[in-house]
Amino acid sequence: MIRDLVKSDDSILHRKIQPCGVNCDRHFISKTLIENMFHYEGVGLAANQIGMDTRAFAMIRDIEYNDIIVCFNPRIIKKYDECVDFEEGCLSYPDEFINVKRPDKIDVMYEDEEGREHKIKLEGFASRVFQHEYDHLEGIDFTQR
Ligand SMILES: [Zn+2]
To answer: Is residue 53 a contact partner of residue 47, using CB atoms and an 8 Å limit?
Structure first.
């Protein structure tokens, strides 16, 4: 189901989204996030960008291999020192492109739709997208970075 993108001043984009517990329908959320991410041609989409009050996002981990992950209750557990500048866009701010400095490499944890925990290291593009989407769940957007 395609949902509307919420407006950038909507309060759901400006508060911390609470963890997704056992009652959330992860399969439905996962499917909806992926479907909407492709519909809006994004490389990542956080649930609150489409008005869903769920601590989850979808992202493309590797464009070449069309490798997509949906992360529930994501956490950044380590940020490595080296930072890089990169121009980011955001579906919630379609006309804005902003240079944002972020760590190039991070260690993260997240749960998948089965509730299994994953701990992985991300670099470059994937690290960038993860941090951008994670910020959305924290109520932060790239205009504040
Ligand atoms: Zn965004």
So the answer is: yes
